[in-house]
Amino acid sequence: MASAITSTTSNGIVTISIDRAPVNALPPDDWAALSSLVDAASADLDARAVVINGGIGRFCAGADIRVLTEPSDDPAMMLTIVGTACAAIRSCRVPVIAAIDGPSHGGGLELALACDVRIASPKATFSASGVNMGLVASVQSLVHVVGDTRARLMLFTGERFDAKLAEEWSLITLVDDNPHAAAYAIAETIAKKAPLAIEANKTALHAASSLSNEDHAALMTELFGELAGTADHQEAINAFLEKRPRSFNRK
Questions:
Q1: Is residue 247 part of a domain?
Q2: Are residues 10 and 50 in the same domain?
Q3: Total structural domains in the chain?
Q4: Which one of 9, 72, 112, 202 counts the least CB within 10 Å of its CB?
Q5: For the segment 102-122, what is each residue's pLDDT rounded down to a tens digit?
Q6: Is residue 218 part of a domain?
Q7: How many Å apart are CA 161 and CA 26, to the nearest integer?
Q8: What 3-state class would DSSP assign to 173?
Q9: Is the pTM of this model over 0.85?
């Protein structure tokens, strides 16, 4: 069976598309393909942003349940392979934007939570559905994004939450009737900024929850000092003084 995960690149924006009807429930091979494509985007120094696009009326309904019915020597295999894909997104060199136009459940919720920016349509829904299958998932990522109290409600009930509430809880960045167009508009804006500064900001954000205040301040000082010596920083100054558009080259 052909992979449901494909990738295209245009003007520095990498689009990773998920296309497995009807709801993008993914078997292990597709999760592995997603990991590989994110890693490839991260390694491409011409890439400026990644958009994960689940298509019209969809995002990702998590793991293909049929896989869970098959005998396995590793009962936690599905959790591990979804976790690997999400780790690739979190460590990706450039920002990753999710365009969510439908169910984001189970592993799909975990996928969305791993992205840096999450744009959802009003018809998107979100569910920590592990408990509905007698399983556990998404605990740390939910607590990190929505806080302990709200995470408990989602994790204990397995209920579906709509986009409006998800936005109020900061589970998503914003609601837009056309999440795909909104995601690409954000990606285009990011692509015009100084690439090394974008990468440094993502590094600092990724480290924020794991470092002490002192260690994070030291990291910020190191990153700032490195960026201050770049040609892109000098270009930003020159363009400002000369009242012209900036032209960055990742140098």
A1: no
A2: yes
A3: 2
A4: 72
A5: 999 999 999 999 999 999 999
A6: yes
A7: 21
A8: coil
A9: yes
